[in-house]
TrEMBL record:
This is Purine nucleoside phosphorylase. SUPFAM superfamilies: CNF1/YfiH-like putative cysteine hydrolases. InterPro entries: Cu_polyphenol_OxRdtase, Cu_polyphenol_OxRdtase_sf, Cytotoxic_necrot_fac-like_cat. Keywords: Hydrolase, Metal-binding, Transferase, Zinc.
Length: 275
């Protein structure tokens, strides 16, 4: 069974094993179902930067936070740029970006906090969401890893930042890799394939297979991130991997690739209830 489990309210999947194991934790990934948005953004679009009506996006985001037991004032997000910058949430960051993209945490793809009642969110339509939890120090995080963020090592940088900032060990960190475009659908150029080979070396033979024509490859970006997280010191048994493909499942997800760029965004979310 996939670690991301569909709920009765079908606008979200939940990391139910994590939530059962650690009762303070709330974590999951929204779907495209059950929201207010129309047409290409039908219907649970959580991205304010894609041309949707802002009131609809905010209604969807608010529903996601509130149905999970958090106020919308705590919904905190960044302006994602496919980079590897990571922000440790300060009190003044809480609520950033919830009403307007210009107010989001600037140029950042990774968010970390040890604060309760901060609903961390980041946005996806094919890119890989990475979730982090360090239970001993009560630190949560989420990072946006498309191929650019992946080769910029945002996953390992999240692990290093948690370990250094909170004085813990990678062996005490758990990670989950969420729904995203699968190797079934993710064809990339030899330029991208070369960058993947640079970061994982020999192991690239596990994540790249020949594509539909010369110079094209099918890339398994979930496995690439899993390898990088394992190299960073997370134990193999502590990494959950979703096998849901956003491009195969446009009934359930937005897909930038499958829908030619005009589509909505899902939200990866993680938060801690008061201890
Ligand atoms: Zn697919």
């Amino acid at each position: 069974m996939d670690p991301f489990v569909m709920q009765e309210r079908e606008f979200m999947l939940r990391l139910t094993d994590w939530e059962r194991r650690w009762p303070r934790l709330v974590a999951g990934f929204s779907t495209r179902k059950g929201g207010a948005s129309q047409e290409a953004f039908d219907s649970f679009n959580c991205g304010l930067h894609v041309g949707d009506i802002p009131e609809h996006v905010i209604e969807n985001r608010r529903k996601l936070a509130e149905e999970n037991g958090f106020s919308y004032a705590s919904f905190t997000c960044a302006d994602q740029v496919h980079g590897n910058e990571i922000r440790i949430i300060a009190d003044s960051d809480v609520g950033a970006g919830r009403m307007a993209n210009e107010e989001a945490i600037a140029r950042t793809d990774g968010l970390l906090t040890d604060k309760a009642n901060v609903f961390l969110a980041s946005f996806y339509a094919d890119c890989v969401p990475l979730f982090f939890y360090a239970p001993e120090v009560q630190v949560i995080g989420v990072a946006h890893a498309g191929w650019r963020g992946t080769v910029a090592r945002i996953g390992p940088r999240m692990v290093e930042t948690i370990a250094r900032t909170w004085n813990t060990r990678p062996e005490d960190i758990f990670a989950a890799i969420g729904p995203s475009i699968g190797a079934c659908c993710y064809e990339v150029s030899d330029m991208v394939a070369d960058r993947i080979k640079e970061v994982i070396g020999d192991k690239s033979s596990c994540v790249l297979v020949a594509g539909s024509e010369a110079g094209k490859y099918m890339l398994n970006l979930q496995e690439t991130n899993r390898i990088l997280l394992e190299e960073a010191g997370i134990l193999p048994g502590c990494i959950e991997v979703s096998h849901l493909c956003t491009s195969c499942r446009t009934d359930l997800f937005f897909s930038h690739r499958k829908e030619n760029g005009k589509t909505g965004r899902m939200a990866a979310f993680i938060a801690l209830k008061e201890g």
